[in-house]
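Hey team,

Filing this mostly as a record. A colleague (T.K.) asked me to run one chain through the structure pipeline before their review meeting, and I want the input and output archived in the tracker in case anyone asks later how it was produced. No errors, nothing strange. Just documentation.

Input sequence:
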Amino acid sequence: MFDKDVLNGIWKENEIEYFPKRKVSNKLSWKIHHITGSFYSNKMGRTIEYESIGECLFYFFLELAREVERYYVQPVEINIPHLSKEGDRKSWTHIPDVLVFGIGSKPTLFQIKENPQESKKHDFINKICQEYAAKKQWKYRVIYPKKLPQEILYNIKFLQGAIRKRKRFDEWIPEIIYRVEYMEVVTIDELASSFAPKVNPLLVIPVIHHLIATGVLQIKITNEIDQYSEVKLKKLNEQLLPYLNLDGELFEY
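Output structure:
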């Protein structure tokens, strides 16, 4: 295991090596409909740009997944060889979407797609990317975040908005954890109501959501989060989102 100073040094080196290799652009929107935007990443400590809903959803997931340590968008340039009309050997540059570093797993290079695409060109690109990743001792995945069930998509977007710790949260967090430990399994509504009349339950609910988003509390991610969602303390060997993982199986359709 690396100590904190060594690990911070590695992350600083990665920031330099895997800086975005191109700027987010909407210039092809007349041909391929997509949405560009950005958000502030609490995990990376800077603004992350995206150029599709699929990318945005997956980056939100990476923010939520506690097993993800760092992720770098548009991190590397991969030369894709081809023959010109004259038969000359040439190449063009392909930039995969994101490189993810997770706890206890190999780095994974992800290509994010809206829908499965079958063509010799895409198969060849994936083959070259797979070979590139293998040489780096990484994994390579093509994923389709928009294919996730609507309940999970809702939860990812909802929890992303609950990650940032707000004022006075620290005042209630220890008490919430203590009560969940005692109750073992409790609904969000029951947990918040247990603070009345000492505290207005409506003030406690955002803190509960924050603890879910940061992985302290566990929920069943396949059901849309509401006041009747049951929470429990997260065990050491449980992921925040156990139905989603860095291998991306649920994203692969």
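Quick notes for T.K.: The helical segments are 4-17, 53-64, 120-135, 150-160, 169-183, 188-193, 201-213. The chain is about 35% helix and 20% strand.
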